[in-house]
Amino acid sequence: MPGDGAIPFIGESYWAYDLSIAVLNGSVPVDRLNDMVTRIVATWYQLGQDANYPPPNFSSNTRARTGPLYPAALFSPTGVVNEYVNVQADHYKIVREIGRDAITMLKNDNRTLPLSTGAKIRIYGSDAGSNPKGPNDCENRACDIGVLGYGKKTPLLHSSPFLALL
User: Fold this and answer.
1) φ and ψ at residue 68, rounded to 5 degrees
2) Where does the sequence pass through the membrane (predicted)?
3) Of 22, 2, 26, 23, whose CA–CA distance to 13 is shortest?
4) What is the model's pTM?
5) What percentage of the chain's residues is helix, strand, coil (to nearest 5)?
6) CB atoms within 10 A of CB 81
7) CA 121 to CA 112: how far, in whole Å?
8) Could you count the other beta carbons within 10 Å of the beta carbon of residue 148?
């Protein structure tokens, strides 16, 4: 399954063999399995991934540039599995625009606003800055060092940034 994050052939996949067992013992109906497959395959076709779609340029099994081309196979040729493609481009512009547009002004009780030029604004929390080693440095996105590329396994342990006026 795409995005699994774990390595299925060593038993760490979300479903791995358990889905096959559940279908065979009847605890998951075959109709439900067909529904799962239909949703994946229909999306694959709808997005045109069946024709002229680029192959993956990264491996979730290793961070090295080269590795097994078929990691679950008993024997596999070795080749380039991570091309380290920079997909960030100029996305920082839209991120800043979204951040600017998301700012919420509060009721100006006691004429607190505008802030004087001497006021300090601090941002606290694990999302207060970028991970110095890159947005996806943490294995399985399981750390609290800056903003992550996408979700986390333990969202309850993750603190949100907040502003404080000092």
Assistant:
1) -65, 135
2) none
3) 2
4) 0.38
5) 30, 10, 60
6) 20
7) 14
8) 20
